[in-house]
């Protein structure tokens, strides 16, 4: 078992980050911390102007800063992107401890399941018939993986995830606890007051480098596929309905719901509790604000903000400025209407 050091010199940290060190290269750093609370033996980062202005007051032992920034007397490591480099620093002090490869004796694997090299399968995992698990993947305790599933390499499936029959998971995908991939799409035909289920015979395809949050539900397609494209990141409690396509590198924040057969473009952002109706096209680089109800398609690059129905962000800002004054304005309108009525009555009396 490898022992991980719990402290490093600034020189080692700077070299690891390919950064430029200004300060005491022999300074010992023993941990990471937020900017506001970092102490003399901890390292933090200051990526934005708000934090850079407060550098002098910081008690941190070292600070990651942009390459062009300088603060004499402080231990600084200059990097291209301080926040991104800080991820590597955190990993240096808190490396991920992956389980050793192997299949727990309490797991159930179908006889024709194909488990590649360096795979970990935890206790009470079920892996169905003709399913393939790619090299270096980790299937944690209690996960259920159905028949004819394909899981790529270096995938991490957290406890109690369910991946149902026929679904396809790419490489380096992470799926957090409680998520269900391939649940039935919500499709029914009404007849005589009763509802008849439409068979849901498609799959869910999740491409490379996707991260699915906890307790997501991603429905299989009625026909074809529900498709989560490369680099998509979802928060917890997200629902994606049947035949939805989510474009590359899009972000879906907590409690987002997307109804069936809607297509979301690449690099879109859908903020918390937003709801998107079905059979719509949401363009590339679209931003949908929190609690927004989207009932019609949105073209590329637009920003729509809170409320239902959704409206252009600039319009929403103007509306919000007016809302507090509405009671007074309503009273004035009522007074003006009364005055107009009085003037009309006087005019008729002439």
User: In terms of structural class, how would the helical and strand content be classed?
Assistant: alpha/beta
Order of adjacent strands in the largest pleated sheet: 9-12-15-18-21-26-29-32-35-38
Range of strand content: 25-35%
Largest sheet: 10 strands, parallel
**Segments where pLDDT lies below 50 for 5+ residues?**
none
**Helical content band:** 10-25%
Question: What's the rounded overall pLDDT mean?
Answer: 95
What global shape is seen?
Answer: flat
Number of strands: 40
Contiguous helical run count: 5
Radius of gyration: 28 Å
Could you tell me how far the N terminus lies from the C terminus, measured between alpha carbons in angstroms?
Answer: 104 Å
Q: Layout of SSEs?
A:
Layout: E1 8-9, H1 10-17, E2 20-22, E3 28-29, E4 31-32, E5 42-45, H2 49-52, E6 62-66, E7 76-79, H3 82-93, E8 102-103, E9 108-109, E10 114-115, E11 120-121, E12 126-127, E13 132-133, E14 138-139, E15 144-145, E16 150-151, E17 156-157, E18 162-163, E19 168-169, E20 174-175, E21 180-183, E22 188-191, E23 194-197, E24 203-206, E25 211-212, E26 217-219, E27 225-228, E28 233-234, E29 239-240, E30 245-246, E31 251-252, E32 257-258, E33 263-264, E34 269-270, E35 275-276, E36 281-282, E37 287-288, E38 293-294, E39 303-305, E40 311-312, H4 313-322, H5 326-349
């Amino acid at each position: 078992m490898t022992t991980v050091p719990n402290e490093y010199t600034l020189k080692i940290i700077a070299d690891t980050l390919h950064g430029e060190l200004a300060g005491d290269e022999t300074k010992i750093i023993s941990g990471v911390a937020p900017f506001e609370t970092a102490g003399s033996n901890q390292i933090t980062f200051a990526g934005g102007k708000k934090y850079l202005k407060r550098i002098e007051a910081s008690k941190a032992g070292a600070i990651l800063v942009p390459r062009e920034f300088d603060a004499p007397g402080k231990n600084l490591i200059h990097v291209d992107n301080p926040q991104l480099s800080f991820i590597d620093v955190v990993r240096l002090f808190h490396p991920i401890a992956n389980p050793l490869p192997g299949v727990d004796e309490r797991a159930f694997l179908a006889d024709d399941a194909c488990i590649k090299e360096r795979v970990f399968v935890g206790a009470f995992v079920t892996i169905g018939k003709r399913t393939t698990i790619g090299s270096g993947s980790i299937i944690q305790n209690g996960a259920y993986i159905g028949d004819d599933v394909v899981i790529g390499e270096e995938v991490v499936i957290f406890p109690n995830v369910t991946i149902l029959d026929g679904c396809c998971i790419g490489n380096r995908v992470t799926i957090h606890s409680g998520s269900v991939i391939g649940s039935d799409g919500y499709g029914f035909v009404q007849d005589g007051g009763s509802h008849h289920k439409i068979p849901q015979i498609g799959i869910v395809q999740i491409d490379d480098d996707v991260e699915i949050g906890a307790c997501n539900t991603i429905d299989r397609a009625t026909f074809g596929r529900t498709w989560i494209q490369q680099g998509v990141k979802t928060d917890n409690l997200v629902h994606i309905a049947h035949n939805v396509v989510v474009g590359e590198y899009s972000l879906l924040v907590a409690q987002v719901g997307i109804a069936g057969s809607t297509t979301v473009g690449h690099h879109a952002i859908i903020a918390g509790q937003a709801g998107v109706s079905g059979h719509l096209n949401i363009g590339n680089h679209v931003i949908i604000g929190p609690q927004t109800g989207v009932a019609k398609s949105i073209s590329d690059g637009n920003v729509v903000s809170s409320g239902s129905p959704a409206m252009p962000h600039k319009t929403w800002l103007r509306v919000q400025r007016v809302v507090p004054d509405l009671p007074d304005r309503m009273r004035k309108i009522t007074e003006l209407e009364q005055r107009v009525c009085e003037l009309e009555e006087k005019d008729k009396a002439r």
